[in-house]
Write a structure and sequence with these properties.
By secondary structure, the protein is an alpha+beta fold. It is 23% helix and 43% strand. The chain contains two helices and five strands.
Length: 84
Amino acid sequence: MTNIAFTKIIRISEHNLEFNFRKLPGEYQNYHADVTDLKGNRIQFSMYQDAHGRWHTTGTLLPLWISDAESSIGEAITEEMSIV
């Protein structure tokens, strides 16, 4: 499998944040993601696409703004997938 990794700037709550994505092995659309919050803390989580094409976050103790931005983060992955 090819190593797929990319970075996207996503606007969330009036801020442009840099998200890094890396495709995880397997048949499913599953990505590791990380982002630095406004205080400089690195937040790591996973994104997966369900059978209906909706994106979801998984991780422990994720800030609410990540969950609220789930669809925007998923759209950034979908956009990148259409390029690859």
